[in-house]
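Box 3.1 A note on notation
Throughout this textbook, protein chains are presented in two layers. The first layer is the amino acid sequence; the second is a token string describing backbone geometry. Keep the layers aligned when reading.
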Amino acid sequence: MTKLPISVIILTYNEEKNIEDCLKSVYGWVDEIFVIDSYSTDKTLEIARKYTDKIYQHPFENYAKQRNWAQDNLPVKNEWVFHLDADERATPELYSELRKAFSSTLDAVDGFLVSRRTVFMGRWIKHGGHYPAYHLRIFKKDLGRCEDRLYDQHFAVNGKTKILRGDIIDTVTVSLDDLIFKHNKWATLEAMEAVDRAKDYGVRGKDYTVKGNRKGNPIERRRWLREKYYEFPLFIRPFLYFIYRYFFRLGFLDGKEGLIFHFLQGFWYRFLVDAKIFEIVKKAKIESKTLEQVIEELYGITVDREQ
């Protein structure tokens, strides 16, 4: 297996159930693997050491800051980096596509868009507009960065991108309890962003924020759709989105597993975000407090407005 001049960066925290399959999926064909751990208390690091000695620990604040810290501080020797989550796996098809790309000239390409294949309860979720879902994960490290957002962060690159065939497999959850726990946390972060638009979530200096664009690349189109979604009325939009996703985008073809996934992720989660937005705004009005004060009281999270 030909090694490619790519440095993989993986974030971990108590990922003993996921990390080995993740590492196996890239081990042997990338030049180096970095694991950035947020002080795991399980066997994550013990497992990781079987595949790499490039293990670092750094306090976790949020995903964007952790990923950007990794790019700014790790002794990465390659021009190209590949960001992978611990619950994701690179497919053999992706390796084949990358090998072809790196065997030709890369002068005209600064990053690659790769589709994420969601697997839920052992089933590939192919419908409901959930596949293909492209993400920028492989790019020249001096040109790319993760946009500084609390939720729904994307990597952006100041340069040209190309879509690759071959997927990243995303194993969504090991249990429904885990899914609900994570989505409750993510709903809090998304609600905070929705009611705090004045905060600058872009990276200072070069603009690494993904802009919504109906005619742009797949990531820009998804961001544009998300922006349009928030133009619909509170509590009405989750119903409309689920109907669109489950019926018009054929989510029902994903079977019983798809029904569970599309309902929880496409309706329950979106409704929960709206409920949290309603809770924050109502409490602020009743108690004559700022949104920042309410967010800190409800969730123990301080909103930093420093520019």
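The CA atoms of residues 13 and 114 lie 24 Å apart. The chain has two domains: 4-171, 176-299.
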